[in-house]
Amino acid sequence: MRTQVVIIGAGPAGLLLSQLLDLAGIDSVVLEKRSRAYVESRIRAGVLEDQFQELLRRAGVGARMDRDGEIHDGMNLAFDGRMLRIDLAGLTGGRTVRIWGQTEVTRDLFEAREARGGAVLDCAEDVIPRGFDGEAPYVTFSCGGASQRIDCDFIAGCDGFHGVSRASAPNDRSETSERVYPFGWLGVLSETAPVASELVYAYSPRGFALCSMRSQSLSRYYLQVPAATNPDDWPDDRFWDELRARLPEALADGLETGPSIEKSVAPLRSFAVGAMRHGRLFLAGDAAHIVPPTGAKGLNLAGSDVHYLSEALIQWYFNGDPVALDTYSDRALARVWKSQRFSWWMTRLMHSFPDDPPFNRRLQRAEFEMLEESQAAQIVLAENYVGLPY
Ligand code: APR
Ligand code: PHB
Hints:
Elements: E1 5-8, H1 12-23, E2 28-31, H2 36-41, E3 47-48, H3 50-58, H4 63-68, E4 70-72, E5 75-79, E6 82-86, H5 88-91, E7 97-99, H6 102-115, E8 119-121, E9 125-130, E10 138-143, E11 146-151, E12 154-157, H7 165-168, E13 177-190, E14 200-203, E15 209-215, E16 218-226, H8 236-246, H9 249-253, E17 260-272, E18 277-278, E19 281-283, E20 289-290, H10 298-319, H11 323-350, H12 358-373, H13 375-386
Parallel strand pairs: 1-2, 1-12, 2-8, 5-14, 12-19
Antiparallel strand pairs: 3-7, 4-7, 5-6, 9-10, 10-11, 13-16, 13-17, 14-15, 15-16, 17-20, 18-19
Bound molecules: adenosine-5-diphosphoribose and P-hydroxybenzoic acid.
P-hydroxybenzoic acid binds near residues 46, 47 and 199.
């Protein structure tokens, strides 16, 4: 079998790349180890930057998002019971974000690939990128027990943090940068009305809480918990009581509770590779970087990576121009690191770090008070939240 680009991973990065390349006339095959049903069921992020929304429209998968996804022109920080609204639109010349679950993005992308006859092979096992340090890369894998090989021009590693692509690249540990946080997020999905019309990021000495949503009848809440927390130790009543305890009283009093329809714990990590290109292997999305979800940047960074990589491949195939491929890694990492900074800053501001000395806790309060008093500080937050330029 032969194709132009083999894409490993059918998450948002892999599917979006495949769709954009297909629309430009470039063939690809997507190899996914999980079933489509499993990938579509994964509950992940939900805040889309305007540039990511535009990418989805360019890919022909923006209609449902534009129809059903809520536009938010503000978000809120709560600190020890005080609320501060960040007027995203007012501070950024009218820019907003849209609430649209990653499960919806992935569903629309799978359907779009299917409609165009795109090759997405799920249940691909033992996928291994090979020969990418030369001019004739290929990928081996098995499907239903039969060994397969696909020869190609390029390999895109879109297989997430635990994928095979980064692990197959030359392993120079000095190149990666990582920070692991001493806590995770316990997330709950419930068929209840959201406690507020916009997102609320709440700091309390008991720990961080986030009030989000998927629609006006489907709420998404998170609590900061110790990293090794077992969700089974958090029956719904305990979750709701702790969430109330971490929110400003006015919000807590209006909280609508109900049975959780999904409950899970996600670790928090900041991670980035030193290089997103290794010969003819290109990394994109979580395969190359992980940000703590506090800044809502993970899915949006997968978008900017795919934008840069798809444009670079188009330049190579149709103009014979290798410059964009040669500069892909530096260009993508430049935006990744500015989002790493923002995600770390939001995490540092809004979480209760267990071993923090009093000085650090007082700094957190000073940071919040500076945000309350400085429009310039709010503009920096707002510009990062709605999305830095591609
Ligand atoms: N072979 C084939 N597929 C693999 C392999 C492998 N060895 N390893 C992982 N995969 C698949 C996973 O099953 C997953 O479906 O690669 C896909 C990677 O998708 P994501 O982890 O969603 O990563 P990405 O597409 O970069 O999207 C980043 O999604 O994970 C969220 O919060 C994250 O919002 C971020 C966004
Ligand atoms: C979510 O709704 O899942 C969500 C929203 C904002 C974040 C993280 C997660 O920063």
